[in-house]
Amino acid sequence: MGFGEAGESFKCERCGKVFAYKYYRDKHLKYTRCVDQGDRKFPCHLCDRSFEKRDRLRIHILHVHEKHRPHKAFTASSILRTHIRQHSGEKPFKCKHCGKAFASHAAHDSHVRRTHSKDKGCTCSVCGQHFPEQEDYDFHMKIHAAH
Question: Both 106 and 81 in a single domain?
Fold first, then answer.
């Protein structure tokens, strides 16, 4: 298939782009409208790439050199981080009860409350009803005592 030896590279003679494998260089030549670097009127002042059109140069600078990410505006950096995790799939908040992971602290806390609240609190020895909060349990026991 035309793979190179370790460290070998394959340069496109028309545009100067370098590939790790001959296969990808050949695919580039076959399927892209490769333009000679001399015909590219818009060089990037930050690297050795050049472009046929000014808007392509602008997009290159934004995405490659300025690391522009077209995200919504967020009021706090923590909210932006949570939003980015939704796209990246990162889930750093792990439930200590079951091991399930979550992208946000809020989602983790909500899961623990909904799923594992029975792990905490008190269970009535008379009727078996469970109360996550001590004061609810105490009130319930007064009802049993009154009867």
Answer: yes
Write the pLDDT tens digit of every residue in 70-95: 656 777 777 777 777 776 677 888 88
Same domain assignment for residues 102 and 86: yes
CA distance 116 to 105: 16
List, in order, residues 6 or more apart from 19 with CB less than 8 Å away: 9, 10, 11, 12, 25, 28
**Which DSSP helix (H) or strand (E) runs through 19?**
strand 18-19
Decide if 134 is inside a domain: yes
Q: Residues 27-63: pLDDT tens digits?
A: 888 777 676 555 668 888 888 777 778 888 888 888 7
Per-residue DSSP letter, 46: S
Pairing of strands 42-43, 50-51: antiparallel
pTM (2 d.p.): 0.35
The CA-CA-CA angle for residues 31, 35, 38, to 5°, reads 160
Range of the domain at 109: 70-116
What is the per-residue pLDDT across 100-139, written as a single tens digit (0 to 9) for each? 888 888 888 888 888 876 656 788 888 888 877 778 888 8
Report the CATH number that the domain containing residue 108 is assigned in CATH: 3.30.160.60
